[in-house]
Amino acid sequence: MSDAVVDPPPNPHATAEQVKAAYADPKLANVLYHDWEAGTYDEKWSISYDERCISYATDVFDAVAGEDGQPYPTAMELGSGTGFFLLNLMQGGVIKKGSVTDLSPGMVRVALRNAEKLGLDVDGRVADAERIPYPDNTFDLVVGHAVLHHIPDVPAALREVLRVLKPGGRFVFAGEPTKIGDFYARKLGQLTWWLTTNVTKFGPLSAWRRPQEELDESSRAAALEAVVDIHTFDPGDLERMARGAGATEVRAVTEEFAAALAGWPIRTFEAAVPAEKLTVRWRLFAYHLWLRLSALDKKILARVLPRQLFYNVMITGVKRP
Ligand SMILES: C[S@@+](CC[C@H](N)C(=O)[O-])C[C@H]1O[C@@H](n2cnc3c(N)ncnc32)[C@H](O)[C@@H]1O
User: Fold this and answer.
1) Using one digit for the tens of pLDDT, what is the confidence trace for 286-304?
2) Does 198 reside within a domain?
C-alpha cells in the first residue's frame, strides 16, 4: 500500500466549527494549527538547512547523546514539522537514512519537499506518536525536537519509541520546555507583547505597529497554541518517565538560561512589529547576542545553576539490547 493512499491530506483552511472543536481536542488542535503553519513555519522560526542550523542540531544531539554510534544507519523523527532536526542531523553526518513523521499532513509534505531539495534519502508518514505505524525493531535511532510537550500521553509515546527501536537503539528528544523555564519565558513574552503593542498605538511609534487584523490573527494563533502546548517538564521527572517506559542509560540535560531570558522578549518583539522594521543589522545583532549568551550558559551558568532553571530540556536513552 502506498503512503499516498494511507496518509490524509493537509487542511490549511480549517472551518470555524473545526477550530471551535479543536479547543477541546489537543490532537485536532495540533493538526489544524500545524497544517495552517506548515507553509510559513521555516520562515517564522528562522529555520534553515545551512551551517547555522546544522551546527545547532548536531551540537544539541552531541550534548546529550555524544558522538558514539554516528552515523546511525536509520533514524525516524517524531513530530518532524518541516524536518528541521532530522534533515540537519543528516546533513551533519549523524544519520544516513531518515524517515519523517508528524500528526500534521501539511508538515510531512513540507518536510519531504525540503528533503528532496537537499537531495537527502528520506521517506515520510503521517503518524501519531502514541501509535507509531512502523513494526517492532525498525530503527537505530528515534529523534524529536519540540514535540513531547504536545503529546497527551507521553509515557505511551516513549513505549512506542522503544518498540520501534532496534535492541541497543537510542532515542534523543530535544527542545522541550522545562517547568520553570516555561514560566519565565511566558511571563517575559506576555510583558513584551503588551508593551510593544501599547507603545506603538499612538504618536511617532505608530509606524512600528502591525495592522490590527494581523495582531488579531497572532492572538488567535496564540490561543490555539495554548491548547497544543500541553506539558512542561522537570528534568528528573522526565528521566523517571523514560525509565518507566523501559529505557536504559537515560540522561536529561538542560540548556539556555541567559539565552532564553533575552531570546523570548526578542522573539516576541519581532512578532509584534512589522517585518520590514527588522533590518538585517537587527537580525544579526539578535543572532550574535543569542550566540554569546548561549556560550555563557554552557561555559559558566551550567556549572553553577540548578539544571531545572534552564529553559530547554533534552533527554536520551537506549532500548535494552
Ligand atoms: C513545535 S512543532 C516542532 C516541529 C519540529 N520538530 C521543529 O523542531 O521545528 C511540533 C510538531 O509536533 C507535531 N505533533 C504534535 N502532536 C503530535 C503527535 N501526537 N504525534 C506526532 N506529531 C505530533 C506537530 O504537528 C508539529 O509539527
Assistant:
1) 999 999 999 999 999 999 9
2) no
